[in-house]
Amino acid sequence: MTQQRLAGLPRGVWALGLVSLCMDLSSELIHALLPLYLAVALGASTITIGVLEGVAEATALVTKVFSGVLSDRFGRRKPLVVLGYGVAALTKFVFPLAPTLGWVVFARLADRVGKGIRGAPRDALIADLTPAKVRGAAFGLRQALDTVGAVLGPLAALAAMSVFVSDFRAAFWVAVVPAALAVILLIVGVHEPDRPRSADAAPRRLDWSAWRLLGRDFAALTVIAAVLTLARFSEAFLILRAQNVGVPVAQAPLVMVFMSLVYALTAYPTGRAVDRGFAPQLMSAGLAALVAADLLLAFAAGAVMVYSGAALWGLHMGLTQGLLSALVAGSAPAHLRGTAFGVFNLASGVALLIASALAGVLWAGMGPGATFLAGALFTALAWAALLRHGMQALGREAQG
């Protein structure tokens, strides 16, 4: 039955999933090594790393609002998706060549700009390609394939560090190959469906009146997601926590493997469960997993607790991320899907910038335990808000 369901998804969704796999392999190879490279090789502080990661991820999420609106405005999504993946692929050449911290910062930010350009149009394109009855499965599949890349990336980083005797720059060159493959696969394998223009077509410019058309359920979902993002700061701190408890530098990327493996295994089943109407229950389970992960990481005394916390972090991601994408697609009018994904990610981007900067400050001033305890507190607040105000809205959007 599962094979039949998978085979019934559009070819374009499969292609976009494989593109995500290749690019995430490339990006996570670098991401798994970058915090250690910044801290060990370049001497950056945890505050610097926290601010950089927050700004980088926030840049990606904020950029999505503009690319999403443009994809609605012009009625074409694939050109922006290709541009975004192309920019990200080009940045992979900069990391091994960067002579200073400034160049690494530039490459990280440019990579995230590429992610921002492609993100909202790609998600809207998946919604355009997919019938509503299997929308959760489609987003779950793309997220699962994306996360397979996130598993392979840190493993490739470990292999490269072993082969090149802990030479960070040599390891970064490996990331160029899957990035180039992602762009080629996207150009050849994804064909955008025609979307006829209508009287309710997307507005010609970005303004608040267009955003108000997205509705109250979408607004409630966006607020809940923003509060949740305050609890889920950059995953770079998982790697730093592994090093903090004594995991050797060359093995610290394994923490991302544990997280991403659980994420990949749970994303597609979660999507199927969303299609069957279990969105509120899945969201609560995801928040419970994040609280447990933060508590384990806060009190971790060795590698086993860190890896267990990372696995629970991955469970949280698998239960919530594809679910949120499906809910955004279900809550927004078809002609404003790009705008909806852009606005949603703008709110999340601002929250992520605040969260990662705060995490860096707490780590430097009070230690890693305080960082993860703060994450648990914000998660509990998001959970309380969901239980009090958001359950009915989530249920309606899941049926969207």
Which tags fit this structure?
400 residues; mainly alpha; 17 helices; 81% helix; 0% strand
What does this structure look like?
Helix 2 packs antiparallel against helix 9, helix 4 (78-91) runs antiparallel to helix 9 (176-189) and helix 7 packs antiparallel against helix 13. The relative contact order is 0.17. The chain contains 17 helices and no strands. 81% of the residues lie in helices and 0% in strands. The chain is globular. It has 400 residues and is an all-alpha fold. The mean pLDDT is 81. The chain has one domain (10-191, 214-398): Growth Hormone, Chain: A, CATH 1.20.1250. It has helices at residues 2-7, 11-41, 46-74, 78-91, 94-97, 101-129, 135-163, 168-174, 176-189, 208-212, 216-231, 236-244, 254-275, 279-298, 303-331, 337-366, 368-398.
Briefly characterize the structure:
By secondary structure, this protein is mostly helical.
Under the CATH scheme, the architecture is: Up-down Bundle
Q: How many discrete structural domains?
A: 1
Largest β-sheet summary: none
Question: Helix coverage percent of residues?
Answer: over 70%
The tally of strands reads: 0
User: Structural class, please?
Assistant: mainly alpha
Shape annotation: globular
**Whole-number radius of gyration?**
20 Å
- Discrete helix count: 17
In CATH, what is the class?
Mainly Alpha
